[in-house]
Every structure is written in C-alpha cells, then in structure tokens.
Amino acid sequence: MNKLEQLKAMTAVVADTGDIEAIAAYQPEDATTNPSLLLKAAQLPAYQGLIQTCIASSGLKESCQSAQVEECMDQLLVALAKEILAIVPGRVSLEVDARLSFCTEQTLARARSLVTKLQAQGIGKERFLIKIASTWEGIQAARELEKEGVHCNLTLLFGFAQAVACAQAGVFLISPFVGRILDWHKANSDQQSYLPAEDPGVKSVKRIFEYYKQHGYPTHVMGASFRNLQEIEELAGCDKLTISPALLEELAQSEGDLPIKLKRELILERQERVTFTEAEFRWSMNQDAMATEKLSEGIRNFAADQVKLESLLISLASTAQREREAS
User: What residues are labeled active site?
Assistant: First the structure.
C-alpha cells in the first residue's frame, strides 16, 4: 500500500479543501473548509453556476444590505456542503464568520442560522461540524451548541490552554495547527530546521492527543495546517488529520512503511489534569506568545478572505444585474 492507504487504515483522513474535484480524487472520510479555501474555490469555473444560483435566490445586488450578503454567504456554504457530502461519507466542517470570534452570542446566532438552513436542505446534524475560532468566546459558543446536539470543530488552535478549555466545554473536535506553529518558531528563532519528531507543531499535537487519551476526554484531535509529509507521518494514528490536496497526492505517490506514532498504548509520560477558569485561560494565552500571535493572525486572515469573498459575490451579482438590464 502507498502511504495514503496506510494512513487511512489508522487515522481518519480529511480533505482540507473546498475543491470538489480534489475531494473526489482522494476519497477522504470528511472535508474541512474555511474562508480562504472557499475564496479559492469560488474562483473556479466549476462553481460559477452554483454561485449564480445562490446570488439569485438570496436577492443579492450591488447596492445590498449586510443581511443580504450574510444570506448569500450562508446559502453558498449550504450549497457547497451538499456538493461535498455527496462525495464524502462523513462530515463537512463549515466555518462561522471569523469577525464574530470575540462575541459568543453573535457566534451562536450565526451558527444556529446556518444549522437551520442545513437541516432545511435535508442535511442532518450527523453530517456537519460548525467550525469556530478557539477564542474563549468561541469555545463558550461551542459549549452551548454541543448541548443542543450540534457538534463543533474548534479551529485556529495553537496553545495547550485552548485544548484544555475545549475539552472542558465538551467540544466534539479540535483542529490544532501544526505548520503555522513551525512557521512561528522559524520566524522567532535562529533554528530553521527540525528533526520530524522535534517539530514544535508535531510536539504540540502529540501532547494534546496524549493528554486527552490519558484523562478520558472524548474530544477528537484533528491535526491541521501541514507543511510537509514528515509532519503528517509523525502524527500517524491521530484521530483525524486534515490534509491539503497537494500533500494527499504526495502521500499517494509515496511508498514504504508508515508506522503508527500516536496510540494510547505508546504514551509514556503522565500529564497532570488541569482546568481553566476564564481568567486562567486568558493568562495562559497571554504567557504563550506563539499561540496568541498565531490565533490573532489567523482570525485577521480569515476575516480578510471573508471580506474578499463577499466582495466577489457582490461583484458577480452586479455583473449579473447589468446583464439582465441590458437584455
């Protein structure tokens, strides 16, 4: 078996893309999306018909109100979810607007609206995850959604405090970022290369995985944001790994043995169980420069791509409107 086939035997492989063709090519169990990936997908020719349908049904126009933009965005998310779920047997993760990351109530309102639209299209709660940034406010929103039977994927997770708080909140799944942690360490130290097992992003996910398993937390760990094959190989055995099409292709083309690296029976070091109040969480994040900076950067970048995607939809709506008037 190639390494992708071997990985699928021990870890749920998730496609980190909104590109339907790429998802179909690698047959993952689940798929994850975010504003940056959706922005790329929305510019592909294959999606133009779907986008025009969402624009028309939402009534989006050039001189639109924010409510119309939000409606069009949600319709696009739901339409893409339907396309993706026709391919994957599991779940698709759909992200709440990153600009709401610091307001629990607004995050809840947007998530509930999205859930209603998904269910109206016959998509049950067992087929999707609501993706939310791992701020304190986002984690508390996820706590409430989980109580309502809506499973969540907490993203932009860089620090151990975030992982602990997510487990306390009963979150279904977390997405700790591997490559972006490595990026930070390279940018903030003289060390530019690491042995695979010493990669700081790999070590972070391994610590979280082992902590959860030792203390019986049911929260799934899904490593994300990979920079190379070695990071993926070092996390073989993790509950889930979400991987870009380029790296999925590399795995599919790679031969050789892929040993399991993460497994309850392989845990050697005992970690003490900890809990965080809000103040303790914020202090721990304050003391973790990497987690604080990468979380803030990630939210800014996702928000910027959300704005670009909305602008693209408005531009396409304006073009369609002019073409209708001209005819």
Answer: 131
